[in-house]
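Lecture notes, continued. The same structure-token format from the folding unit now serves as the input rather than the output. Read the line below as a description of shape only.
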């Protein structure tokens, strides 16, 4: 009898399905944590430390999901989200917005940005992996 031990917490629902995820985050620790969790699930990770680089990567690499920090140097993550949601080529990419400032006070601003979900940081690992999986599981694998 073999015993299956998943990377985090005991759920076959997190079986790796290689998808491309863009992390737009200026905090190196959060970026490293998000990246490690995603890579442990078999996903390809792209990273940008500011909104301008994130916009360029999103347009060039067509990720399956974007994780976007609210507070970034230069343009905010919410403004970058609005920009991506206004463009034909990127409007259908799901975007999870994160913020280290707890529950985001202005729910209207979140909605108006066009983001698909919000998660405060520091993250709860199981909740993060479940949220990411809820978006990525709906997307057919495009890459080998």
């Amino acid at each position: 009898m073999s015993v299956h031990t998943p990377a985090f917490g005991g759920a076959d629902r997190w079986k790796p399905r290689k998808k491309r995820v863009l992390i737009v985050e200026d905090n190196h620790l959060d970026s490293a944590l998000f990246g490690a969790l995603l890579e442990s699930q078999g996903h390809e990770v792209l990273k940008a430390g500011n909104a301008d680089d994130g916009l360029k990567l999103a347009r060039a690499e067509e990720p399956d999901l974007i994780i976007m920090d609210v507070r970034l140097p230069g343009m905010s993550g919410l403004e970058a989200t609005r920009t991506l949601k206004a463009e034909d080529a990127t409007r259908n990419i799901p975007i999870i917005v994160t913020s280290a400032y707890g529950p985001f006070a202005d729910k209207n601003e979140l909605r108006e940005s066009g983001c698909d979900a919000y998660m405060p940081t520091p993250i709860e690992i199981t909740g993060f992996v479940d949220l990411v999986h809820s978006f990525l599981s709906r997307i057919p694998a495009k890459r080998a």
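Point for the exam: Residues 28-40 form the longest helix (13 residues).
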